[in-house]
Specification:
With 267 residues, the protein is of the alpha/beta class. It has 8 helices and 13 strands. The chain folds into 2 domains: 4-211, Spore Coat Polysaccharide Biosynthesis Protein SpsA, Chain A, CATH 3.90.550; 221-265, no CATH class.
Length: 267
Protein backbone atom coordinates (compact mmCIF):
# COMPACT_ATOMS: atom_id res chain seq x y z
CA UNK A 1 0.00 0.00 0.00
CA UNK A 2 1.09 3.53 -0.62
CA UNK A 3 -0.54 6.90 -0.58
CA UNK A 4 -2.16 9.41 1.74
CA UNK A 5 -5.92 9.61 2.27
CA UNK A 6 -7.79 12.47 3.90
CA UNK A 7 -11.00 11.29 5.58
CA UNK A 8 -13.78 13.83 6.15
CA UNK A 9 -17.21 13.18 7.64
CA UNK A 10 -19.92 15.67 6.70
CA UNK A 11 -23.48 16.40 7.77
CA UNK A 12 -25.12 19.49 6.28
CA UNK A 13 -21.86 21.42 6.01
CA UNK A 14 -21.61 21.45 2.23
CA UNK A 15 -20.24 24.99 2.04
CA UNK A 16 -17.53 24.22 4.60
CA UNK A 17 -16.67 21.03 2.75
CA UNK A 18 -16.32 22.95 -0.52
CA UNK A 19 -13.85 25.34 1.08
CA UNK A 20 -11.95 22.44 2.60
CA UNK A 21 -11.68 20.80 -0.81
CA UNK A 22 -10.42 24.09 -2.25
CA UNK A 23 -7.77 24.35 0.47
CA UNK A 24 -6.63 20.77 -0.13
CA UNK A 25 -6.24 21.60 -3.82
CA UNK A 26 -3.63 24.21 -2.82
CA UNK A 27 -1.53 21.65 -0.93
CA UNK A 28 2.16 21.39 -1.71
CA UNK A 29 1.52 17.64 -1.82
CA UNK A 30 -2.10 16.84 -2.55
CA UNK A 31 -3.64 13.77 -0.91
CA UNK A 32 -3.91 10.72 -3.10
CA UNK A 33 -7.48 10.25 -1.93
CA UNK A 34 -10.09 12.48 -0.28
CA UNK A 35 -12.59 10.11 1.27
CA UNK A 36 -15.80 12.00 2.04
CA UNK A 37 -18.40 10.19 4.15
CA UNK A 38 -21.87 11.74 4.16
CA UNK A 39 -23.95 11.20 7.30
CA UNK A 40 -27.68 11.76 6.84
CA UNK A 41 -26.80 14.20 4.04
CA UNK A 42 -28.43 13.21 0.74
CA UNK A 43 -27.03 16.24 -1.12
CA UNK A 44 -23.40 15.34 -0.45
CA UNK A 45 -24.15 11.63 -0.79
CA UNK A 46 -25.35 12.24 -4.36
CA UNK A 47 -22.04 13.84 -5.42
CA UNK A 48 -19.83 11.74 -7.67
CA UNK A 49 -16.83 12.29 -5.38
CA UNK A 50 -18.61 11.16 -2.19
CA UNK A 51 -17.03 7.87 -1.12
CA UNK A 52 -19.67 6.52 1.27
CA UNK A 53 -22.79 7.47 3.15
CA UNK A 54 -24.46 6.47 6.40
CA UNK A 55 -27.99 7.11 7.65
CA UNK A 56 -28.60 9.10 10.77
CA UNK A 57 -29.28 7.43 14.11
CA UNK A 58 -32.28 8.23 16.34
CA UNK A 59 -29.82 9.10 19.12
CA UNK A 60 -27.68 11.44 17.01
CA UNK A 61 -25.04 11.47 14.32
CA UNK A 62 -22.92 8.27 14.19
CA UNK A 63 -19.64 10.14 13.78
CA UNK A 64 -17.47 7.35 15.20
CA UNK A 65 -18.97 4.82 12.79
CA UNK A 66 -18.59 7.25 9.89
CA UNK A 67 -14.89 7.78 10.61
CA UNK A 68 -14.41 4.03 10.73
CA UNK A 69 -16.20 3.67 7.41
CA UNK A 70 -13.98 6.37 5.89
CA UNK A 71 -10.86 4.59 7.08
CA UNK A 72 -12.14 1.33 5.62
CA UNK A 73 -12.64 2.96 2.21
CA UNK A 74 -9.25 4.68 2.35
CA UNK A 75 -7.45 1.43 3.16
CA UNK A 76 -9.31 -0.38 0.38
CA UNK A 77 -8.07 2.30 -2.01
CA UNK A 78 -4.49 1.57 -1.00
CA UNK A 79 -3.67 4.33 1.48
CA UNK A 80 -0.97 3.76 4.07
CA UNK A 81 -1.39 7.16 5.78
CA UNK A 82 -4.79 8.18 7.15
CA UNK A 83 -5.44 11.88 7.79
CA UNK A 84 -8.70 12.67 9.57
CA UNK A 85 -10.04 16.21 9.13
CA UNK A 86 -13.15 17.72 10.63
CA UNK A 87 -15.32 19.15 7.85
CA UNK A 88 -14.88 22.64 9.32
CA UNK A 89 -11.09 22.54 8.90
CA UNK A 90 -9.18 24.31 6.17
CA UNK A 91 -5.59 23.17 5.72
CA UNK A 92 -2.26 24.88 5.50
CA UNK A 93 -0.60 23.97 2.18
CA UNK A 94 1.97 21.87 4.02
CA UNK A 95 -0.40 19.90 6.27
CA UNK A 96 -0.81 16.79 4.11
CA UNK A 97 2.91 16.45 3.38
CA UNK A 98 3.80 17.07 7.04
CA UNK A 99 1.47 14.38 8.28
CA UNK A 100 2.67 11.92 5.63
CA UNK A 101 6.33 12.54 6.48
CA UNK A 102 5.78 12.21 10.23
CA UNK A 103 3.71 9.03 9.90
CA UNK A 104 6.30 7.44 7.61
CA UNK A 105 9.12 8.46 9.96
CA UNK A 106 7.38 7.39 13.17
CA UNK A 107 4.44 5.13 12.33
CA UNK A 108 3.74 4.17 15.95
CA UNK A 109 2.73 7.74 16.81
CA UNK A 110 -0.75 9.14 16.21
CA UNK A 111 -0.08 12.74 15.22
CA UNK A 112 -2.22 15.85 15.79
CA UNK A 113 -1.67 19.33 14.41
CA UNK A 114 -2.43 22.77 15.89
CA UNK A 115 -5.82 24.21 14.97
CA UNK A 116 -6.71 27.90 14.80
CA UNK A 117 -10.35 28.87 15.34
CA UNK A 118 -11.19 31.55 12.79
CA UNK A 119 -13.36 34.59 13.26
CA UNK A 120 -16.46 34.95 11.01
CA UNK A 121 -15.41 35.29 7.37
CA UNK A 122 -15.48 38.62 5.54
CA UNK A 123 -18.24 39.13 2.95
CA UNK A 124 -16.13 37.60 0.17
CA UNK A 125 -15.12 34.59 2.31
CA UNK A 126 -11.79 33.44 3.70
CA UNK A 127 -8.75 34.11 1.55
CA UNK A 128 -7.15 30.67 1.37
CA UNK A 129 -3.87 32.14 0.16
CA UNK A 130 -3.38 34.16 3.35
CA UNK A 131 -4.61 31.78 6.05
CA UNK A 132 -1.13 31.55 7.55
CA UNK A 133 -1.42 35.19 8.61
CA UNK A 134 -4.35 34.19 10.85
CA UNK A 135 -2.42 31.44 12.63
CA UNK A 136 -3.28 31.52 16.36
CA UNK A 137 -3.74 27.97 17.66
CA UNK A 138 -6.32 27.19 20.31
CA UNK A 139 -4.69 27.81 23.72
CA UNK A 140 -6.16 24.69 25.33
CA UNK A 141 -3.99 22.37 23.23
CA UNK A 142 -0.24 22.07 22.59
CA UNK A 143 0.92 24.20 19.67
CA UNK A 144 4.49 23.38 18.66
CA UNK A 145 6.04 25.75 16.16
CA UNK A 146 6.84 24.89 12.55
CA UNK A 147 9.41 22.13 12.30
CA UNK A 148 8.77 20.85 15.84
CA UNK A 149 7.49 17.39 16.73
CA UNK A 150 6.39 16.54 20.27
CA UNK A 151 5.74 12.98 21.46
CA UNK A 152 4.37 11.65 24.73
CA UNK A 153 1.23 13.79 24.51
CA UNK A 154 -1.55 13.74 27.10
CA UNK A 155 -4.46 11.56 25.85
CA UNK A 156 -6.96 13.89 27.52
CA UNK A 157 -5.82 16.70 25.19
CA UNK A 158 -6.38 14.72 22.00
CA UNK A 159 -9.09 15.97 19.69
CA UNK A 160 -10.23 14.63 16.39
CA UNK A 161 -10.37 17.86 14.40
CA UNK A 162 -7.08 17.05 12.70
CA UNK A 163 -4.93 13.97 13.22
CA UNK A 164 -3.10 11.29 11.26
CA UNK A 165 -1.83 7.78 11.72
CA UNK A 166 -0.41 4.82 9.86
CA UNK A 167 -2.73 2.06 8.72
CA UNK A 168 -0.85 -0.30 11.02
CA UNK A 169 -1.55 1.97 14.00
CA UNK A 170 -5.19 2.26 12.97
CA UNK A 171 -5.58 -1.51 12.85
CA UNK A 172 -3.89 -1.79 16.24
CA UNK A 173 -6.49 0.53 17.82
CA UNK A 174 -9.48 -1.02 16.09
CA UNK A 175 -10.72 2.45 15.22
CA UNK A 176 -13.30 4.52 17.07
CA UNK A 177 -15.71 2.89 19.51
CA UNK A 178 -19.07 2.92 17.77
CA UNK A 179 -20.98 2.85 21.06
CA UNK A 180 -20.65 6.65 20.94
CA UNK A 181 -23.43 8.30 18.97
CA UNK A 182 -23.94 12.03 18.85
CA UNK A 183 -21.74 14.72 20.31
CA UNK A 184 -18.72 14.15 22.54
CA UNK A 185 -16.55 11.47 24.09
CA UNK A 186 -15.44 9.35 21.15
CA UNK A 187 -12.19 11.23 20.54
CA UNK A 188 -10.98 11.07 24.16
CA UNK A 189 -11.92 7.39 24.16
CA UNK A 190 -9.89 6.83 20.98
CA UNK A 191 -6.85 8.50 22.57
CA UNK A 192 -7.13 6.19 25.56
CA UNK A 193 -7.25 3.21 23.21
CA UNK A 194 -4.15 4.53 21.42
CA UNK A 195 -2.26 4.87 24.70
CA UNK A 196 -3.34 1.39 25.78
CA UNK A 197 -2.28 -0.19 22.51
CA UNK A 198 1.43 0.43 22.90
CA UNK A 199 1.27 3.47 20.62
CA UNK A 200 2.16 7.08 21.33
CA UNK A 201 0.43 10.41 20.76
CA UNK A 202 2.25 13.40 19.33
CA UNK A 203 1.83 16.98 18.14
CA UNK A 204 3.17 18.13 14.81
CA UNK A 205 3.97 21.79 14.29
CA UNK A 206 3.94 21.65 10.50
CA UNK A 207 0.40 20.22 10.26
CA UNK A 208 -1.58 23.42 10.81
CA UNK A 209 -5.31 23.74 10.21
CA UNK A 210 -7.89 26.51 10.44
CA UNK A 211 -11.37 25.88 11.80
CA UNK A 212 -14.07 27.78 9.92
CA UNK A 213 -16.38 29.82 12.10
CA UNK A 214 -19.91 28.68 12.84
CA UNK A 215 -22.31 29.55 15.66
CA UNK A 216 -21.83 27.57 18.87
CA UNK A 217 -23.38 27.40 22.32
CA UNK A 218 -21.22 27.49 25.44
CA UNK A 219 -21.89 25.13 27.06
CA UNK A 220 -23.39 23.15 24.14
CA UNK A 221 -26.87 22.83 25.63
CA UNK A 222 -28.31 21.45 22.38
CA UNK A 223 -26.12 18.38 22.93
CA UNK A 224 -26.84 17.78 26.62
CA UNK A 225 -28.50 14.39 26.03
CA UNK A 226 -25.59 13.20 23.86
CA UNK A 227 -22.96 14.42 26.31
CA UNK A 228 -24.61 12.78 29.34
CA UNK A 229 -25.11 9.49 27.47
CA UNK A 230 -21.60 9.41 26.04
CA UNK A 231 -20.01 10.43 29.34
CA UNK A 232 -21.62 7.38 30.93
CA UNK A 233 -20.35 5.12 28.14
CA UNK A 234 -16.85 6.50 28.73
CA UNK A 235 -17.13 6.07 32.52
CA UNK A 236 -18.10 2.44 32.13
CA UNK A 237 -15.17 1.82 29.79
CA UNK A 238 -12.47 3.80 31.59
CA UNK A 239 -13.63 4.47 35.15
CA UNK A 240 -13.53 8.27 34.91
CA UNK A 241 -15.95 10.86 33.60
CA UNK A 242 -14.94 13.07 30.64
CA UNK A 243 -16.31 16.47 29.65
CA UNK A 244 -16.62 17.51 33.30
CA UNK A 245 -16.49 21.21 32.47
CA UNK A 246 -19.58 20.91 30.31
CA UNK A 247 -21.38 18.63 32.77
CA UNK A 248 -20.75 20.99 35.67
CA UNK A 249 -21.97 23.94 33.58
CA UNK A 250 -25.13 21.98 32.76
CA UNK A 251 -25.54 21.19 36.46
CA UNK A 252 -25.26 24.87 37.36
CA UNK A 253 -28.05 25.58 34.88
CA UNK A 254 -30.26 22.83 36.29
CA UNK A 255 -30.06 20.70 33.13
CA UNK A 256 -28.37 17.70 34.73
CA UNK A 257 -27.81 16.25 38.18
CA UNK A 258 -25.36 13.84 39.75
CA UNK A 259 -26.37 10.42 41.00
CA UNK A 260 -23.28 9.09 42.74
CA UNK A 261 -20.77 8.70 39.87
CA UNK A 262 -23.38 9.02 37.14
CA UNK A 263 -24.83 12.13 35.55
CA UNK A 264 -28.50 12.26 34.61
CA UNK A 265 -30.54 14.68 32.54
CA UNK A 266 -33.12 16.35 34.77
CA UNK A 267 -36.81 16.24 33.88
Amino acid sequence: MTGTAVVTVVHERGDHLSRQRASLALSTSAPDHHVVVAVDDPVVAAASWCAASLPGDPLGLPIAAARNRGAEVAIARGADVLVFLDVDCLVDPGLVAAYADAVHDEPRIVWSGPVTYLEPPPPDGYDLATLAALDSPHPARPAPGPGVRLSGADPDLFWSLSFACSVEAWHRTGGFCEDYVGYGGEDTDFARVVAGSGLDLGWLGDARAFHQWHPVSRPPVEHVDDIVRNAEIYRRRWGTTPMLGWLEAFEASGLVRRDDERWLVTG
